[in-house]
Protein: Cyclin-dependent kinases regulatory subunit
Organism: Crassostrea virginica
Amino acid sequence: MNMMCMEFLQHPLPLYHFHRSQFSEDKTDSSSSKPNMSADQISYSEKYYDEKFEYRHVILPNDIAKLVPKNHLMTETEWRNLGVQQSPGWIHYMVHTPEPHILLFRRPLPQSNPHPVAMATTVK
């Protein structure tokens, strides 16, 4: 089994735990240089956590998903150019091959102030 698949299997909350109705339209940067109706159809999951990272996934409409590179993970500039809007620090960290229209993002939790959910799992 390849490393990407292994990491997906160890992901804290698999994608099937989320229903499309749970996605928010939380777009933190509303200043887009080019209006695009498809960008308005991008769905953003709520954030979820483990001990080290904050995660979220983004579902792209088909016309934008066709533009996702197949040979590498995207830089912040690349995913922003597709119309994905979220606060700084998110890393496109993995591709789940069966669902290439779903972008998987994560960013490290601050060391000094971990998310309460992550702390709750370690407190006895």
Notes: The chain has one domain: 3-25+39-120. Strands lie at 43-44, 48-49, 53-59, 91-94, 102-108.
